[in-house]
Amino acid sequence: MRFLPTAIKNIFKKPFTYKYPYKPIILPQGFRGDFSWDRNKCIFCEVCERVCPAEAINVEKEKKNYEWDSGKCIFCAQCEENCPTKAIHFIEKMTQVDTERKIRKYQ
After folding, report:
1. What is the mean pLDDT of each run of 10 residues along the chain (107 residues)?
2. Residue 97 covered by a domain
3. How many whole angstroms separate alpha carbon 8 and alpha carbon 6?
4. Number of domains observed in the structure of the chain
5. 1 exposure class (CB count in 10 Å sphere: 0-12, 13-18, 19+)
6. What is the pTM of this model?
7. What is the number of alpha carbons within 13 Å of residue 24 lying toward its C-beta?
8. Burial of 70: CB neighbours in 10 Å, binned 0-12, 13-18, 19+
9. Which of 105, 15, 19 lies closest to 64, judged by CA?
10. What is the pLDDT of residue 32?
11. Is residue 1 part of a domain?
12. Taking Cα atoms as reference points, which of 73, 69, 75, 64 lies closest to residue 39?
């Protein structure tokens, strides 16, 4: 019965959760959301692949292929910080939850 006063008090409080996706969430500045890669800026130097601690990026320089695995990515932004041409960005957009692992292939 010790929880009864707390339960009664919480009935009259506003809910703590957001009604996402029906109401937009206010994201903090510097939020690392969805991955964005610009093919026109990329020189396929493979720096992003080398600095990625989760091994989520695979670059094939000869074929000009670029793969990003969202299931492995830990959103540390090492690839963004080390890219010499600034071809990689994490945009301030909430990503959708998926039930399957997706590997984005860029060509």
Report:
1. 85 80 80 86 93 93 88 89 93 70 68
2. yes
3. 5
4. 1
5. exposed
6. 0.67
7. 6
8. middle
9. 105
10. 83
11. no
12. 64
Environment class of 83 (CB within 10 Å of its CB; exposed 0-12, middle 13-18, buried 19+): buried
Q: Is 18 part of a structural domain of the chain?
A: no
Q: What is the DSSP letter of 63?
A: T
Q: What is the pLDDT of residues 24-44, one digit of tens each?
A: 778 888 888 888 889 899 999
60 lies in which domain range? 30-106
Comparing CA positions, the residue from 57, 45, 62, 63 lying closest to residue 104 is 57
pLDDT at 97: 62
User: CATH no. for residue 79?
Assistant: 3.30.70.3270
- Per this entry, what is the length of the chain? 107
DSSP state of 39: T
Give the separation between CA 90 and CA 47, rounded to whole angstroms.
17
What is residue 30's predicted lDDT score, i.e. its pLDDT? 80
- Is there a domain that residue 20 lies in? no
